[in-house]
Design goal:
Number of helices: 5
CATH superfamily: ACT domain
Structural class: alpha+beta
Distance between the termini: 26 Å
CATH class: Alpha Beta
Radius of gyration: 16 Å
Largest sheet: 9 strands, antiparallel
Number of domains: 1
Length: 187
């Protein structure tokens, strides 16, 4: 009989969309207080994949992907989404949000983002939060799904995600060698 084992910890990431650099800096500061040191601060990219956020946040939006040093349990995804929503609300202006935070995680096989919007491919993980697998990793690169957001589908963040995956593999190997994570699988 197979016995369930604990899952490996995952690499906490966040996609950060903003219209105001001071709000971005404050959001990053608050995220570090909650989630630990940022160990990857991705490049800024113009957000032109959609005009969905423009009525609330204005034009000329930029987006980047960041990651945090501590490895975390994947089952905390709903907590991370709720915490990020609190930061968005705190920084909100009368016209609406000036920063949008989409936390998620990366492991050796995939990228998962948290969402509060249900859809057929999303799995409810509690407290009104859904897990949305947006990329899978195979044969040396990330591959999108039919539902993957346009910017991820176009590979805009692939370089950052590859760097984050490399950091994660080193951290996971270190944790495995010290016996502080549930698996010693080869990554």
């Amino acid at each position: 009989m197979l016995v369930p084992s604990s899952a490996d910890p995952v690499k906490l990431i966040a996609a950060v969309l903003w219209s105001d650099r001071s709000a971005l800096e404050e959001a990053l500061r608050r995220l570090e207080v909650l989630w630990g040191r940022i160990d990857h601060l991705g490049s800024d990219h113009p957000f032109d994949a959609s005009d969905y956020y423009e009525p609330e946040m204005g034009p000329n939006l930029e987006k980047r992907v960041i990651s945090f040093e501590p490895l975390v349990a994947s089952e905390r995804l709903a907590d991370f989404k709720r915490e990020s929503m609190s930061i968005e609300e705190f920084l909100q202006r009368p016209t609406g949000r000036c920063v949008n935070l989409d936390p998620g995680y990366l492991d050796v096989h995939k990228v998962v983002l948290a969402s509060v919007k249900p859809a057929c491919q999303k799995i409810h993980v509690g407290r009104g939060v859904y897990a949305d697998m947006v990329l899978r990793y195979s044969r040396g690169s990330f591959h999108p799904f039919e539902w993957t957001f346009t910017d991820y589908r176009q590979g805009v963040f692939d370089a950052s995600l590859m760097e984050i995956r490399s950091l994660y593999k080193v951290q996971l190997a270190r944790a495995s060698s010290t016996g502080s994570c549930g698996s010693s699988r080869k990554v």
